Amino acid sequence: MRLDRLLSENGCGTRSEIKKELKKGAACVNGVPVRDGSTQVPEGASVTWHGEEIAGEALVYYMLNKPAGVITATRDPRQKTVMDLLPPRRRKDLYPVGRLDRDTEGLLLITNDGPLGHRLLAPGRHVDKVYEARVRGAVSEREVLLFREGLAIDDADGAFTARPADLEILGREEDLSRVRVTIREGKYHQVKRMFAALGMEVVYLKRISMGPIVLDAQLAPGEGRQLTEEEITALKAQG
Ligand code: URA
User: Fold this and answer.
1) Residue with CA closest to ligand 1 atom 7
2) pLDDT above 70: residue 6
3) Is 0.90 surpassed by the pTM of this model?
4) pLDDT, tens digit, for every residue of 176-198?
5) Are strands 201-210 and 105-111 parallel, antiparallel or unpaired?
6) CA-CA distances (angstroms) from residue 200 to 100, 143, 162, 168?
7) Domain ranges in the chain with CATH number 3.30.70.1560
8) Is there an atom of ligand 1 within 6 Å of 216 CB?
9) Ligand 1 within 6 A of CB of 190
């Protein structure tokens, strides 16, 4: 939509008043003053008029390094949620894209872009999710092959055959194996259940990436930041 039309539809004044104020730099689109009323405003852009946000809700894309011990929910009467880790002004109408278990750490995307979130999670999309894990026992080439073939899971949470997944052995620490797992779906407790199906227990799990978005190594557990323009573009291309 044109900027002048958007401003007049939001009650910012008559066309001529808006034109005059625009020349003085009263409107900003995504933080940049725009003086030409015929400028097309991109969908979801943040538009301010004399410093006040006026265009709908700006779309927000946030990455959080989720720490262990908080639940992936928008609110909970008793337990700390991932939303409690965001600055209060950022919480409104945001929701996490998918979920990580309470004891899982790492990358969690949080947005108010509902359609994009749904597309990333759609079962047919097969967006890569990469996890690093510590697993009790010796993970070997046998498990690598079984993950690649597609494991049959049948446990208390239900039965399904996992899509082929990549399992990479990173090293050993006493009785633990360090591994990297790439899955392309997001069933409940999926990584833990895949190892459990082979008689192995995941004792530590951290998500490293989701599609093109890689957890920023600068973020300590509990910290987050907005996605960059490049990351948002990559995410939209994937979704
Ligand atoms: N798989 C799991 O088992 N748990 C998570 O939190 C994410 C993937």
Assistant:
1) 100
2) yes
3) no
4) 999 999 999 989 999 999 999 99
5) parallel
6) 20, 10, 16, 15
7) 128-210
8) no
9) yes
